Here is the input.
Amino acid sequence: MPTIFTKIINKEIPADILYEDEEVIAFKDINPQAPNHILIIPKKEISTINDIQENDDRLIGKLVRKAADIAKELNIDESGYRLVFNCNKDGGQEVYHIHLHLMGGRKFNWPAG
Ligand code: AMP
Here is the structure.
């Protein structure tokens, strides 16, 4: 099902895009929880992490690799950062189009709240 992220992919609503290719797009989170907060998403509509299929493995790997590339560009690769996929209600998922949160520029607690 299309979400607000489909509108960003289709350029129907604006976003601050840091990276884009035919499969993946990365843009700044509108409500940042850290000095750097980027969402890396597949253009393919996958609702939740539970819906990933075996033939998506390469695509999901690419999200993680692109997150690391962006962390390097933002100069937070050495200081560190957190990558998060929220899944469903208890995971805190609000947008049902999978997205990898890249957050950095501050220290994060563990265990996560
Ligand atoms: P989640 O709770 O994991 O589903 O995360 C959804 C994220 O999408 C939140 O961090 C929101 O701030 C972010 N978000 C929602 N709408 C937009 C938008 N139009 N542009 C950028 N980020 C958005």
Residues 4, 15, 27, 29-31, 39, 86, 92-95 surround adenosine monophosphate (CB under 6 Å). The first helix runs from residue 4 to 9. The two ends are 29 Å apart (CA to CA).
